[in-house]
Structure formats: structure tokens, C-alpha cells
Amino acid sequence: MNIFRIIADIEKVDPEVYNKLDSRRSVFKSLGNMGKTAALTAIPVALGSVFNKAYGQSSGTVLEVLNFALKLEYLERNFYAGGLAANGLITDGAARAAIQKIQMHEAQHVDILIATIRSLNGTPISEPTFNFGKNFADWNTNYQTFLTLAQAFEDTGVRAYKGQAANLISNDAVLTAALQIHSVEARHAAHIRRMRNNAGWIVGAAGNSNVPAGAAAVYAGEDNVSHGGINDVKTVGSGYSAEIATGAFDEPLTKDQVAQIVSLFE
Prior knowledge:
Mean pLDDT: 77
Organism: Pontibacter indicus
Low-confidence stretches: 22-32, 36-57
CATH architecture of the largest domain: Up-down Bundle
CATH class of the largest domain: Mainly Alpha
Number of helices: 10
Largest sheet: 2 strands, antiparallel
CATH superfamily of the largest domain: Ferritin, core subunit, four-helix bundle
Structural class: mainly alpha
Strand order of the largest sheet: 1-2
InterPro entries: Ferritin-like, Ferritin-like_SF
Protein name: Ferritin-like domain-containing protein
Strand content: under 5%
Pfam families: Ferritin_2
């Protein structure tokens, strides 16, 4: 049995295999210290343990997360496309240019997620049909409502990607792609917030957003002032208010929380 030939074959389909096995070199080193017969007997068991730890996060979980992200990107792409197509909704030239660029970013996110899912032999979810007027009837006739929902979607996207990062940690390439999208979503959120004359970051459970009551779920948990076991207000010292503490960190959203938000538009 040629261990390194096996690993080389795995590398053809998973370039990150050496990164995943790096911290487990001691296993192979200990095999080298055994007698030849004992080592041959131990190899199958040792390899099973090593690869189980390296690939413990199933590809099914990764695909599930990617399809979860794809649904959010479909929602954002279609929302902006609908707003741009609405007659007389976005009349300011600079604002329209910004929304067009954001819409194109979201379309690219859709494309890259679909390609990634297929590269992992998965099946991308079909594009859903969204009803943005289900709870917000004037979303495509009232510019302020449109911007409010845009902010809510972008803030949701940032927190949703953050909430799923741990589920992608078994695949460096996928995690890297997700973090690249996450940072762009954060820039979108800050830009839309500025367009609404809000701070570029979320402040408290209200999100500093003036969102309708129906969208309050977007900012669930954002009033948290404790991070890493430290109360940011009490421990850090004077001059640090709850507003500063909540604005310094975005809280992750769970899949169930995001599903509740998306259900407002299905």
C-alpha cells in the first residue's frame, strides 16, 4: 500500500488535501517507528482515522450551505432587477448606477455559486419565485421602501454568510469563495445604508434602519454586547456605550432565522 500515492490521487480532486492532513503528520510519523508487520496492520486503521478527521464535514453539508446561499443570492439579484425595471422608481443617476452595479455583483454571485455546486457534483436549487409585494406592497413604487428592503437584504446576507462559515471549514476553496462574497455583501450593506443616511454599520436590534415591524427579524440578536466572554460595555471601560458595542460586531444568523426572513417574500 503506497500511502503517498493514495494522497496524490486524492489531490487530483481535492487540492487542499495536504492542508487537511498537515496537522496529522504525527500519525504517519508514528507508523514509521513501528515494526514492518505491525505498521502494515495498522495502516488501514490509521488512514481511516486520519481521513475521517480530515473529511469529517460531509460534502452534503457543504452543498446544503451553498444552496442556502444561492437562494439568498437569487433573492437579491431578482429584487434589484425588479427595482431597476420599475418605471420611475430609481430616478437619480448616481443611485441608479450604484444599484445597477450591486445587481451585477449579485448576478455574479449566483453564477459562481451554481458553478461551485456543480463542481462538487451537486445540483443547484431551481430559481424560486419571489413575491416582494407580499408584505410590502409599495416596494417597487416607493423609493424609500425599496431602499429599506435593500438594506434589510444586504444586512441579512452579511449575517447569513457569517453564520454558515463553520459549516464550510472542511473545504478551503469553498470557504474562501464564501468569504469573498461575504465581504462584498458587507460593502453593499454599508453603501445602501449611506444612501438612506444611516450609519454604515448595524446599531442594536433596531439596526438603525427604521425597518417595518415585519422585517424586524433581520436584526434579531444585534443588541448583544458580549463577545468572546467579554462584556464590551462593562469590561472595556468608560466611554463605550451599548451603541458602540453593538456596532462593533455583526451577529451571525442561523439558517432558521434566515428562512424566516426569506419567507416574507415567498
